Amino acid sequence: MANGLSISFFEGNPIAGKTFLLGTGSDSDAGGRVIPNFLKNLNHCIADKTSKQQPHRHQYQEWWLILVDQIAYGFSEQENALVLSAVEKPNNWDRIIVLSILTGKVILEF
């Protein structure tokens, strides 16, 4: 432990394509779990970008919103389903895509 930070590593079972596995979704200092924080920020970004896009909606036939995840670093299939069921996509967007900051690959799309 140094300056209030401690890191622990535990041996786990290998999963194809994953170098590191999330050990917990809790942050004692932030007071919340990863998915609720991700959803709060995702909904904020969607609302913010929707309000900025609205006056220009008529200029293009199709609109995509592409965001980069800097909170969760991807989800399991079960977590993906939970996130997708908790987010309501506004009609202003034809597609909303969330990319991994680590790989640049799509981690969520709706």
Structural shape: elongated
Number of separate strands: 5
- What percent of the residues sit in helical stretches (DSSP H or I)? 25-40%
Share of residues in strands: 15-25%
State the low-pLDDT regions, or none.
Answer: none
Structural class: alpha+beta
What does this structure look like?
The protein has 110 residues and is α+β, with helices and mostly antiparallel strands. The chain has two helices and five strands. The longest helix is centred in the middle third of the chain and has 20 residues, at 34-53.
Question: What's this model, at a glance?
Answer:
This protein has about 110 residues and is α+β, with helices and mostly antiparallel strands. The chain has helices at about 35-55, 75-85, and strands at about 25, 30-35, 65-70, 95-100, 105-110. The mean pLDDT is about 85.
Which helices and strands occur, and which strands form pairs?
Elements (H helix, E strand, L loop, with lengths): L25 E2 L4 E2 H20 L10 E6 L7 H10 L8 E6 L5 E4 L1
Parallel strand pairs: 3-4
Antiparallel strand pairs: 1-2, 4-5
Provide key terms for this protein.
two-stranded antiparallel sheet; 2 helices; three-stranded mixed β-sheet; 27% helix; 110 residues; alpha+beta
